[in-house]
Amino acid sequence: MQLDRLKTGGRIDRTRPLNFRFNGKTYSGFAGDTLASALLANDVALVSRSFKLHRPRGIVGAGAEEPNAIVQVGTGASTLPNMRATQVELYDGLEARSTKGWPNLRFDLAALNDRFSKVFGAGFYYKTFMRPKAFWKYYERFIRASAGFGIAPTEPDPDSYEHRNAHCDVLVAGGGPAGLMAALVAARSGARVIIADEQNEFGGSLLSGSESIDGKPAAEWVNAVIAELRDRGNVTVLTRSTVFGYYDHNFIAVAEHCSDHKGERAADGVRERLWRVRADQVVLAQGAFERPLVFCNNDRPGVMTASAVSTYINRYGVCPGKRAVVFTNNDSAYRTALDLNNAGIPVVVVDCRKSGAGSLGATADAAGITVLRGHIVSDVIGRHRVSGIRIARWDGDTQSTFDSTIRIDCDLLAMSGGWSPAVHLHSQSGGTNAWDETRHCFVPAESAQANVSAGACNGHWSLKACLQDGIDAGAEVAARCGLRTMPVELPVTTEGTDNPMQALWRVPASKDPDRCPKQFIDYQNDTSVADVRLAAREGYRNVEHVKRYTALGFGTDQGKLGNINGMAILAECLGKTIPEVGTTTFRPVYTPVTFGLGAGENVGELFDPIRKTAIHERHQAAGSPFEVVGQWHRPWYFPQGGEDLHAAVARECLATRNSVGMMDASTLGKIDARGPDVVEFLERIYTHDVGRMKVGRCAYGIMLREDGMLMDDGVMARLGEHQYYLTTTTGGAANVLNWLETWLQTEWPELKVYLTSLTDSFSTIAVAGPKSRDVLQNAGCSIDLGKENFSFMSVQQAVLAGFPVQLFRVSFSGELAFEINIDSAYASQMWQILMESGKEFDITPYGTETMHVLRAEKGFVIVGQDTDGSVTPVDLGMNWLLSKNKDFLGKRSLSRQDCVRDDRKQLVGLLSVDGSTVVPEGTQLIEDPGAPKPVPMCGHVTSSYFSATLGHPIAMALVSAGHRRKDETIYAYLADNLVVPVTIVSPVFYDAKGARQNV
Amino acid sequence: MKKYSGLSLVTGALRHNRNWQPAWRKPDPKREYDAIIVGGGGHGLATAYYLAKEHGVRNVAVLEKGWIGGGNTGRNTTIVRSNYLWTEASLLYEKSLKLWENLSQELNYNVMFSQRGVYNLGHTLQDMRDIERRVGANRLNGIDAEVVNAEQVKQAIPLINTSPDARYPILGASLQRRGGVARHDAVAWGFARAADALGVDIIEQCEVTAVNRDGGQVTGVETTRGRIASKKIGVVVAGNASVLASMADLRLPIESHPLQAFVSEPLKPVLDTVVMSGAVHGYISQSDKGELVIGAGIDAYLGYGQRGSFQTIEHTMEAIIQLFPMFSRVRMLRSWGGIVDVCPDACPIISKTPVQGLYFNCGWGTGGFKATPGSGWVFAHTIAQDRPHELNAPFDLNRFTTGALIDEHGAAAVAH
């Protein structure tokens, strides 16, 4: 039974009843309802409890400003915490519950807090819970349990989200009268327009009122405008789309809610779509928020803003009460009185102004409505619901108190404390606001970006003024886009004359503000007048301090209702003006947005691209587990017959050392560098004499950061007089290219050098081992692979097994080895051919782990594992790579005082004294295992493996003064205070002369 | 200073809370002070407090151009830990952590330091090597640290995604149990109140416009509230250190970037610890109020505007969903930006300068909040004694000339 549903009226579809549940009880509403309107239709006044004092709370607003009706919607994985009932569109089967109240909403034990509310004043928690010290964790557990509203889902989100980029000439935020008019004017000028409105239908305030435009109901006018906009090819019309963020360079973020109105889950398509809009011009037309009045017990269920009451009556066909009082300091609330009267609800108007309202006042009088001018509401009676109010005659003195009041019985109190333009987006964009002394509100002043505010958002209250402002704004932005606009006729509206509003920030009460019943400013956080006064008394006088100390405006409504009242009351108590006090920063977002919306499609596997080599599928088929290296998935090892990592790696190592192994080295970064100045450029980047390399030769090269620390390494080859081929580490590829481009583009733009990444275009297969030459010959190679024709560290073009390849004679294993660079399209085939050509030598594919062991046996470093950004080439014993003939990046830093210290950490080899312990990588090294803490550390283990070739563990480490400490014993500090003695040795464990690779 | 306690709340309530005194006075600036601290953030207020308390220098002014605690003190994600890699850094942060552990009692102001543990996740083999290295170093330095495996991570954080099929699966983590979070505003206010009680003048709405010198000696500052003289000036102005330095003709090796953070709407308790991930790039904890407090990396461009781009927020949300797929339906309530001064080695400068009597404490990058008490403690020592304490000696400005950098980039690839 929808007790409070009016017989007629509203924009709901009475032919489509919907059932829903709230706090376990089933109710019904209609299509077109919000959860809030449906609850009110069912006479549900109590919907929540406040954050701190657990006071009973009802619905107070009708939109984004709602502070009280915070509910949990949906169940299981698709549950949504902290939804505003005023913005939840009703669907059949909707399941909602209050987020506060234990054991239940009506009887809430924590409501005891309210009894002791003076103890729980602003910032009380900073003054207590300090003793005993160890008890904070228990206090905190209790505080945490009683804080918070909704419950986060505990299962992964079953829905999907998407991002869409858009560009437009004009973005219009808000589809009320001003926004529609602006969009129409701009669209007719030919501008590409996007108009977005957060509601399910356009019209804004027109949906809540009973006004007429051009002699017809306003809704018809709205429909006609929307129809024209939709018909034009240059307009994107978005409903249920909130413009929530205004970022630099007119980047506008819009959240389109695609499915929440249909059900718990997005049955088809996405749940939300993020529009990332770059707009030439923006029209801000989000309207205004009606302010509450701040009087005693103004938070009782049944106290609502007047505009919300009108919205429920006109838009939803619901009257949230049976006997109403309207309390106002301005004319607009008289419309609500008339709406109530028309709905057959007895209503009394309490107007603090002695003069009352203008033409609307006369209309009210004519309708027989009792208007008490020069009166105020001093208190509200009723706990779980308003049962009456006390009023008093008022002479305009804000400091006065009352002895005699009159009681009026009512169950609905509609209040209006004036209007605050929604300057949120304007402020987010960096714009400033100015206090308007006549309209008593902040209005947009200077714009920081290309935007115009229009309508109520610009401080215009009358329909006519809003329409005109919209026309002007549309013409302005079109002109700024260089478009010609046609004159548009101002639609005809009926206008009355308003009396000025009377500023009334804190309504006087029976006692002074510190002793009277609570006068709430911020409902959600229970911030009252007394709290603001306490904050000021305690020295928290800057508006930002007051916000943080009292939590004023910190709620999920971000203070849309209460902030201006709070600032005005602060101003009053500091003896300042409101503009002197100012506003707090308006931060993004306008209304909350889901993390899912921000992430869009970039979740799960798409979080970061997975890069796979062209041979990936063969590795997968061979059963290789993969190692994550940057974005790449690289084969880690190739287990056979249930081998574990160690067994497989031992086998792979021995096979490579004794016969031949093969690995997919495609992930190494590859850069083609060419141009007339390429030699000069690379000389500055690399430490060795790049120009001395002969065409066809390869060299190991390193590059340093400006601070002299090793940044990346790799083999480079000179392919021509003005062409080099550079390789980088797998993880460093993108960084290196960025680094090179940064220098080229910003520091040395005079150098003519062109860089092209070839990492994906070419794949690299390394064939290593004494039999590698035979394998290539078996496959059929167009060139003589013998030492005389194709010496170590050289490169040649060749045809291998019928495919054009670039052959490098380089080695990262210390064995005779070839690296085959081949077009990625043929790489997988080449892998297979080589596997077959190597069959007679039992060719063994190996992964990153074996590669690591083989190179460690040779003492070759891995940048990022054996180095950490604090290691110079000298520390690594690479002095031979540092040219004395030229300057290069980082060279100067190498001669800095700290870089020439002889006790720097230097690369060494380590052998465990027991000959069997593989010391974990990362282990710290110490000199004295008995030293008290803090124990000085002399280095750490960077690489550590069991070498099957050598038959014992080997390790590499950075050790203080390591180069001159050969054969000394130091200690590896393992977990659980276990200490293992290790001996410092040369980091080259195998074939120190390098004979094996040079055959 | 009237003592705060549960009892004081009751007596306050009985007097309708009319008996409370300002937490700090609003004095007009005197003409001269023994020391001036420029910057009324947590670090500056802590410096003033320890100057007064530890060194008996009580004729001190803290000059703040806006409102105290309004810079990075009020804009961070409140994580406190000391598990840094290099000894120099970890000992400094450990000093701070030790001060945190008694701060509420010391200041008689509840800063809500909650030692709920900090998990730094490892997602790759290299991450785990780095964790092993850092934890080993921490333990040798007497700092609590543990290496935990993915299963233990899951046990402590039931909602976290430890699936091996995740894009960046969690292989393990380092855990510092003594780490946690604190109430950031309270730190500024608590230090302000305690410093004020010792005689420190906290002067808000007072912007320094010039640094006066006589020869090589600092003599005072020009401010929007007039000239104030002092022979010792400590500058602690995160986000604007380079600006202040240029007033004394100094150049600092600092880049200033926007760093953003955001909170969700308040939720019932869902996350009991602090989770940080470098590879996935995000960090998250839940405030006592119930908001998920989230941050990640800096915006790449340089600037002094306390705002960033939405793209950075998007990436952070991706990272959080990667770790906690259920938070996809949770909503961001508010985002904001601060300006971080980043040094080339990701470590601060707490140092004397070539100008006698002028001291700088800056370059904390993305991780200054945790250091608030320790930073103030060593800076106070540096100013009072005109020489650094051994804990901050390595953080000398000169290290960028000598090359003795303390490179925490590798270990702290993620902002924190």
CATH level 1 name of the largest domain in chain A: Alpha Beta
Distance, first to last CA of chain A: 95 Å
What distance separates the N and C termini of chain B? 34 Å
Helix content of chain B: 25-40%
How does the helix and strand content of chain B classify structurally? Answer: alpha/beta
Helix content of chain A: 10-25%
The CATH superfamily of the largest domain in chain A is FAD/NAD(P)-binding domain
Would you identify the regions of chain A where 5 or more consecutive residues have pLDDT less than 50? none
Return the CATH architecture of the largest domain in chain A.
3-Layer(bba) Sandwich
Determine the mean pLDDT of chain B: 96
Count all strands of chain A and give the number.
Answer: 50
Mean pLDDT of chain A: 96
Number of helices of chain B: 11
Output the CATH topology of the largest domain in chain A: FAD/NAD(P)-binding domain
Low-confidence stretches of chain B: 411-416
Structural class of chain A: alpha+beta
Largest sheet: spatial strand order of chain B? 5-6-4-14-15-16-13-17
- Chain pair sharing the greatest interface: A-B, 113 and 114 residues
What does this structure look like?
The complex is a heterodimer of chains A (999) and B (416). Chain A is α+β, with helices and mostly antiparallel strands and 999 residues long. Chain A has 6 domains: 13-127, Ubiquitin-like (UB roll), CATH 3.10.20; 160-288 and 421-480, FAD/NAD(P)-binding domain; 302-416, FAD/NAD(P)-binding domain; 616-667 and 761-854, Gyrase A, domain 2 (2-Layer Sandwich); 669-757, Aminomethyltransferase beta-barrel domains (Alpha-Beta Plaits), CATH 3.30.70; 901-999, Aminomethyltransferase beta-barrel domains (Elongation Factor Tu (Ef-tu), domain 3, Beta Barrel), CATH 2.40.30. Chain A is 21% helix and 27% strand. In chain A, strands 8, 9, 12, 13, 14, 15 and 28 form a 7-stranded mixed beta sheet that branches. In chain A, helix 4 packs parallel to helix 5 (218-231). The longest helix of chain A is centred in the middle third of the chain and has 18 residues, at 463-480. Chain A is elongated, with a radius of gyration of 38 Å. The model of chain A has no long low-confidence stretch (mean pLDDT 96). Chain B is of the alpha/beta class. Chain B is 28% helix and 23% strand. Chain B is built from 11 helices and 19 strands. An 8-stranded mixed beta sheet of chain B has the order 5-6-4-14-15-16-13-17. In chain B, helix 2 packs parallel to helix 7 (184-197) and helix 3 crosses helix 10. The radius of gyration of chain B is 21 Å and the shape is globular. The interface between A and B is large, with 113 and 114 residues. Strand 31 (593-594) of chain A pairs antiparallel with strand 17 (331-342) of chain B, so a sheet runs across the interface.
